[in-house]
C-alpha cells in the first residue's frame, strides 16, 4: 500500500462559472475543435498535447485495442445488458472487469519485460546494435532457462505473422518513433525464433508494449490503454445487441449443454 | 425483453490467420494510420468512416465527456484502485457503474426529448423556423404544466452560460451540422427562459444531446458516449492516484466524520 | 436526486481499539456465535435481530435467490474470471451487474404492485377476505385493461406450478408470517387465472415479493436481496470454473458461430 | 491459463418443470426451511450440508466479514448509487471491485502461508506441538530474513488485540474445529512477538485465514468469502444511503479540497 499523501489534491481539472480547465488547457477554447479523441487521451494522461508524430502513433496504438470480435469481454457485456438494459454503463463495466492478466496482461508484460531489460536511463538513446543484440540474447536465454513465457509472443490464429505487428511498426517508423524498444523486441523475436528453431508470432500486444516503452509510459498504466479502447468497442457490441440480440440465445444454448448430463432422460 | 433472434451472429468483426476486419474494413490496412480514435468509435458504432465534418463534431462531442474533475465516478474509481491496485480494469469499471440516470442521464434525456418532439422523419429537413418555434413553445408549456424538469438545462456552477455549449454549437456550425435539432434546443432554451422570467443555463449535456440527434444516433445509445469517454478520463485519474494517492486520505477523513457521533467521548 | 443531508454520518458500525459495534451490537460478544448469516443480513438492514419466525422466513427468502444454474449472470462471471483470475471479486461484480429489471426486477415489481394496491397503513392488519378480494379483482382488471404484465407471474419452465412458491408460502404459514400480502397475491393469482381462462404460474419472484411486503421492506431495497444472495451463488460458480473451466469453450463456440457467416469459405 | 475442459458442463444446479436441484438436493424440499444462509453458502461451495459444528464456525466466519464501517468499498458503492440509483446491483458491484490484494487479500495470504508451511497431507492430523513449534519458528525466521510481511498480522486500530480473533478461536474451540492450523497461527503469533520484542496484533483476517484452512478450502477461493459477505454489508449501506445520503456531500467536500490549489483566488 503506497503511503498516502498528506493532502487531497488533484491537478487534472478544475472549473469556475465560466471556464473549465483540463490539464492546464481551456476545454472550450484550447481543446474542443483542436484535438481528436486520441490526442485528448494523451493529454489526460501526460499533461501535454502530443506532437503530430506522437498523435499518429498513439491513435494507432489505441485503435488496435478497440475491437477483437466476440471475446469473453464482449460476451460478458452482452449477458449483462440482457439482464439490465436500463444500465448500459454497467454492461460496459462488466465487460471491462475481465481485462486482466490473461488477455490484456501480455501488453503490460511486454512493456515490463522491455523496461526491465533496458531501463529508460540505462543506455544512451543511440545505444548501438551490439548492445541491443546482447540484451536480447541474454533475455531469451534467461527466459528459456527459467521456462518463462515471453509476453507478447505467440497467437492461436495469427501465424506466423500477426498482421497488426508490421503495420504498427511501419507507422512508428514513418513517425520517427521506432526507437530502441522497437528494435529490442524485434531482436528478442529473432533470438527466440532461432532458439526455438521455428517461427514464433510477435503479436500485437508485444508490438504495442514496445510502443508504450517508446512513449515512456509507466508499465503499470499500460493496461489502461486496453481498458479505455475496449470501452469504445463494448459500446458497439451493446448497440448491436440492442438491435440483434444474441445473449438470450447463448444463455439457452449453454445452459442446456451444461446441465444435459444431470437432467432425467 | 426483446425477442431473441434465431441465430447467434455478429457483424462487427472477424479475422483469419492474416487478416482482421472491423466493420468491413481491414484493421491493418484501412484503419490503422488512417483514422483517429474518435473516427474509430464512429466506425465501430455506425459501420462507416465519418466525413471530415462529422469527424470534427464527433471528436468534440466525445472529448467534452472525458474529464469532469473529482466526480463521484472518479472517487469510486480511486477508492477501488486503493483496494485492488492489481486490477486497474476493475477500478475503471467501478467508476463507470455510476454513470446512470442522475449524471449522464440528462444527455440521453435531452436526445429523447428532442426526438419525441421532432421525430427524424416528421418534418422536412428544412423545416421552417415557424414549425420549430411552435414545437418549442408547446414542449416548454407541456413540461411546465406537468412540472417536469427539462433535461439538459440548469447547472450548479456554470451560470448563466455553460462555456462548452456555445463552443460545441460553433463547431457544429463550422461543420455544417447545426441543423434543426440544434435550432430546436436553442428555441426551447429561449422559450424556457421567457417562461421562467430569468436566465437558465443550457448545459453541455443539452448541447451534446442535440448533436447526437443531428447524427441520428438512437437515444438509447447516447449514454454510451459518456461511458466510453469517461473510461479515458478514469484511466487518467488512476494514473494520478498511483502517483499521488488521495483515496486513503479520503477514507480516513470520511470515516472519522461519519462515525464521530457514535464513538465514546 | 435526493436532497443531500447536511452531515456525513452513518449509524451502521463503529469501532474502538477493543470493540466493534454493528447496528448497536458488539460484533464479538453479541453477534458472532449468536446469529446465522441470514440473521446478520436482517440485522444489517433493519437494525434489529430477527425473531425466530422472522429468521426462518428471511433465511428461506434469501436462500431461494442464491442459485439459478447457468444464468446470464453466471456466464458473465465465468467469462470475467477467465480473463482476470487474479480478481475473483471483479468476476462476482461483473455477474451482479446484470441483476437488473429483466430478471431480479420482477421481485421488486411484485412488491411494488402489492404496496401500491394495499399500502401498509391502508387497511387494518386483519382486513377481511372481502376487502382483499375486491383489491385483487380491481388490480387484475386494471392490468388487463392497460395490457400490463403482472410482475411475479409466468415462467418458461415451471408450469403450471413453480415448486418454490407453495414451499415458501408453507414456511411463511408455519411461522405466522403468511399475512395479508401473501393472501393478496394468492387472490391476484386466482383472479388472473379466471380472467385468462387458463393456468398461470405464480413464480418464486412473486412469492418472494409478497414475503418482502410481509416484512415491510421498502420495495426499493427488494432487489438487494437478490444481489446479496447471488453473490454467494456466483462464488460457487467461480470455484467450479477454477476446477472445471467452461468459459473458454463457450467463447470459442460462440465466436465461431457468431462470425461464421463472415469468414471466407 | 488453465487448459479448457473438452465439455461445457456444470454440476451445481438443474431444474425440470416441477423440481429445482442444487448440489444434489431438492431446493424446495431439502433446502428451504432446513438450512440457514451460511449453510446454503457452504452447500453451494462444497456440495454438502455442513455439520452443526461446521455450521457454527462457518456462519461466524462469514458474519465477521459483512460490515466494516465506512470503508473505501462502502464509499465506492455509495458514490455509484448517487449517480445510478436505479441500478442498486451496480452500486454493490462497484463496491466489491475493490476487495483485492490490499484489504481482503490478507485473509487469502494467511491461508496460503499456512498451507505452504503445513500442507494438508504433510503431517498426521495429530501433529505434535513440537512439529508445529518448529514450523512456526522457521516461518517467522524466513519471513524476517526476506523482509516479508506476515499476512494476517498488524492492525491500525485494534492494538494489541483484535477483539474478533479470540472470539473466533473460542467459537472454533467450542465446536471442535480449533485444529492444527489455528494452533500454528497462534504459534506464529508468539514467535513473531518474541522476534519483534513487542506486541503484534493477530488480526481477524489471520484468524479467518486459519479457519479456512481448518475447513480445507483452497486458498484461491478464500477471498470469495469476503466478497459474498461484503455484498450483504453493501446492501445495508445503500439502504442507509437511500434514507440519509452522504455521497453528494462527500463529493462536494472532496472536490473542493482537491482543486482548491488550482482555482483563482
From TrEMBL, chains A, B, C, D:
A Pfam family it matches: Citrate_synt
Biological-process GO terms, alphabetical: carbohydrate metabolic process; tricarboxylic acid cycle
Sequence intervals crossing the membrane: none
Molecular function (Gene Ontology), one example: citrate synthase activity
Catalytic activity, EC: 2.3.3.16
Main enzyme class: transferase
Gene3D superfamilies: Citrate Synthase, domain 1 (1.10.580.10), Cytochrome P450-Terp, domain 2 (1.10.230.10)
Listed pathway(s): Carbohydrate metabolism; tricarboxylic acid cycle; isocitrate from oxaloacetate: step 1/2
NCBIfam families reported for this sequence: PRK06224.1-5 (NF004868)
PANTHER family noted in UniProt: CITRATE SYNTHASE, CITRATE SYNTHASE, PEROXISOMAL
Family per similarity comment: Belongs to the citrate synthase family.
Protein's recorded name: citrate synthase (unknown stereospecificity)
Organism name: Enterovirga rhinocerotis
Lineage of the organism: Bacteria, Pseudomonadati, Pseudomonadota, Alphaproteobacteria, Hyphomicrobiales
Amino acid at each position: 500500500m503506497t503511503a498516502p499523501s498528506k493532502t487531497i489534491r488533484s491537478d487534472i481539472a478544475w472549473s469556475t462559472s465560466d471556464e473549465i480547465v483540463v490539464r492546464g488547457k481551456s476545454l472550450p477554447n484550447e481543446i474542443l475543435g483542436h484535438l481528436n479523441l486520441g490526442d485528448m487521451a494523451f493529454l489526460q494522461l501526460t499533461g501535454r498535447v502530443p506532437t503530430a508524430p506522437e498523435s499518429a502513433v498513439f491513435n494507432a496504438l489505441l485503435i488496435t485495442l478497440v475491437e477483437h470480435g466476440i471475446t469473453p469481454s464482449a460476451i460478458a457485456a452482452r449477458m449483462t445488458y440482457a439482464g439490465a438494459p436500463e444500465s448500459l454503463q454497467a454492461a460496459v463495466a462488466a465487460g471491462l472487469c475481465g481485462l486482466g492478466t490473461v488477455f490484456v496482461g501480455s501488453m503490460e508484460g511486454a512493456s515490463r519485460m522491455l523496461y526491465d531489460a533496458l531501463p529508460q536511463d540505462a543506455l544512451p538513446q543511440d545505444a548501438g546494435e551490439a548492445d541491443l543484440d546482447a540484451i536480447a540474447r541474454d533475455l531469451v536465454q534467461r527466459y528459456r532457462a527459467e521456462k518463462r513465457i515471453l509476453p507478447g509472443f505467440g497467437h492461436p490464429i495469427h501465424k506466423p505473422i500477426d498482421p497488426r505487428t508490421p503495420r504498427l511498426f511501419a507507422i512508428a517508423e514513418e513517425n520517427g518513433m521506432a526507437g530502441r524498444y522497437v528494435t529490442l523486441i524485434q531482436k528478442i523475436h529473432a533470438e527466440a525464433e532461432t532458439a526455438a528453431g521455428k517461427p514464433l508470432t510477435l503479436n500485437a500486444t508485444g508490438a504495442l508494449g514496445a510502443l508504450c516503452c517508446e512513449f515512456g509510459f509507466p508499465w503499470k498504466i499500460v493496461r489502461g490503454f486496453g481498458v479505455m479502447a475496449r470501452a469504445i468497442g463494448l459500446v458497439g457490441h451493446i448497440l448491436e445487441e440492442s438491435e440483434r440480440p444474441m445473449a438470450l440465445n447463448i444463455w439457452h444454448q449453454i445452459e442446456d449443454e451444461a446441465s444435459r448430463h444431470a437432467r432425467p432422460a
